[in-house]
Amino acid sequence: MGFYRNCLMLAGCLLSALSFLGSGVVAASELPPNVVIMMADDMGLGDTSAYQDLNGNSDESQILTPNMERLARLGVRMTDAHTPSSRCSPTRYGLITGRYPWRNRLKHWVLFGAQGDPMIERDRPTIATQLQDFGYHTGMVGKWHVGLRFRKSDDHPADGWDDADLKFPLYDTPLDHGFDECIITSRSHGTSGPKSNTRQNTSEQTVGPGHIEGRTAIGATGNGKQLVESGPNAYILEDLGGRHSDHAIDFLNRHLKNTETAASPFFLYYACNSNHSPYTPVDSIDGQPVKGESRSVAGQKMGEREDFVYENDVALGRLIDYLENTPDPRRPGHSLVDNTLVIFTSDNGAEKNRDTATGRWRSNKGSCYEGGHRVPFIAACPAAGIGDGNDETPGLTNESLICLTDLMATIADLNEQSLSSIEDGAKGAEDSVSILPALRGEKLAPRPMFYNDHRQADDPAACAMRLDDPVVNGNRVDGKWKIFFDANLIRRGIPQPFELYDLAVDPYEQTNLINDVQLKELIAHLSSVAERHRNSGGHRLAEIASDQRVAFNWAQTPFIPESPGLTLVDLRERFQNEEHSTVSVEAEGVTAKFTAVPGSSNYPARFSVNPRGVGIEGGAFKQVDDGESIIVTFDKDVIVESVAIVAGNGVCGGFYQVGEGSPLAIYCVDADIDAKDQAGILSDIGLLKAGTPLRLDSHPHYGVEAPGQWRLESLTIRFLK
């Protein structure tokens, strides 16, 4: 009955412990481990026999994934692993940056369209830049889907797909975010290039750009958006599984054969297109048949979707075989597999809402119920104490709560390195917590964890937060508490709960306890925790943030609700009567300075207030427009919790910038900048050091989009402890 059902767990634990004691663990500081992260697309917890004992599938309905079972025997299987979102773009952002995706502009859904503006700014640390700093050679193959930017024929950044020239090197790719090499598809395989027999491959097609190597769309013909239709650069859906696997092995071979890299550890981010629809399994991978070869645990032949899931298993098996059969040049007498951290996981729950795909958990992809974000997570690295490397033992199982955002902190911990110093104003890995102790068999302490994108809500920008065994008014409340908040938490920073479950007794989320009067104090506590961790800018920032906040307001009807520790400062009259371009305001011991900067006009800049907020006189309108900007500084270190910008009858555009950091696109509380509604406060700007300017600018972000035309409604800061 599947992988773990027949295991003698006590004997397995004893064998694992004995093997570990004799394995000769090598300290990370002496020899940093290689790292491989392999992530499937839309693969649920029910889609692997490595979790059959948990997902409840029968032998007849359970797809057999022998290599996932094999990796679990070599290492550790995490049974409470989650993605930060129930969809792919935001989860990939979270894994790569160690930060919840809704702290970026994407409040729900995915990047849409052939371009999809980059979600990651140039100076944001990623798991790849971190490993480059640690001396790793970094590479990526497979699905990117956190944004690209093309170039126009004049070599400047393109506004979008329509003005992109595919013969020019792309302006922004994984190479700009820590990867030394990359061979990728831009997003889901069905929309990254033309599908045969369903879309015409023409100069005006709206899909593409096919395969990208580094900065090059290798299939570009020079005839508009048309791509080559045959040969090695052609985009063939049914070939992608084998192609990505070949590229992964090629990266490892190049690394080992190059004398400049062989002495260094490697990092490979291997993001499969399988098993996202359409189901296009490859015929074979490195001679191993795939199409038509999936089988149930009972030995029965399965369908096309299962073949596509099985493609992941075959690719994983090829990778493990390579690592087992290849000598490690840094550790004579050992193979690469001993000192390579191999992680297999998925980007969200299954795209199919059926038990055989999601297991017994409620719902699936696009939902904050467990089936939308609870995923497989299997890891092994014997030399680092993660499993014993013996595939004849059952391997370890750990029930600790973990999230894919935790990988940045975990890999830093594995290398005995520190994350960026947020106390000094640095950004990076704001929501990442090391799970290395859990991978080595320990139980992690409870901590809050968020999941977003809930299609069952009226507004899918809703989210859920999990916190186990919280202490409420000095008393521990046992349980695995999961509370749901409507979209106001993510869009406005205001917690409004509407569902509550105790997963300890109700793992399948059948009994909503939100109206249980006996849990009133618990609900208030969880709401307070959610507000603090949502609005502080990250779990790591929440540790140094106080409860004291100041909201500077210019709107006639402020949206900011009263709450403990919040001081609301009404600045409408002060700014309306101000003749100067700079206004200083003192509140609760901090002095804020607001400066109106003129744009292209010759008129002096001064502030202008209307019921929606503050703008600047001198441009085309009395809004912030025509190249105008507002610069804000403080005389103390503060956390900039949020900036509310209202477009009104204007345009949501422009950028914001902290000091000399990378600019990011402005989004507004009443207007969005993506295919779906991403409206909300400009949040999670982070710790602003005393004297460092925060610039809110109406200029186009890349110089090619529509300029901004908006007003500043409010700005909220939080003090440090």
From TrEMBL:
Secretion signal, residue range per the UniProt entry: 1-28
GO terms for MF: arylsulfatase activity; metal ion binding
Gene3D superfamilies attached to this UniProt entry: 3.30.1120.10, Alkaline Phosphatase, subunit A
Domain of life: Bacteria
Pfam families in alphabetical order: Sulfatase
Domain Sulfatase N-terminal: 33-414
Key words, A-Z: Calcium, Hydrolase, Metal-binding, Signal
E.C. no: 3.1.6.1
Keyword Transmembrane helix attributed: no
Keyword Signal found: yes
Extent of Polar residues compositional bias: 187-206
Broad EC category: hydrolase
Chain positions covered by the region annotation Disordered: 187-209
Family that this chain belongs to: Belongs to the sulfatase family.
Alphabetized PANTHER family for the sequence: ARYLSULFATASE FAMILY MEMBER, ENDO-4-O-SULFATASE
Name used for this protein in its record: Arylsulfatase
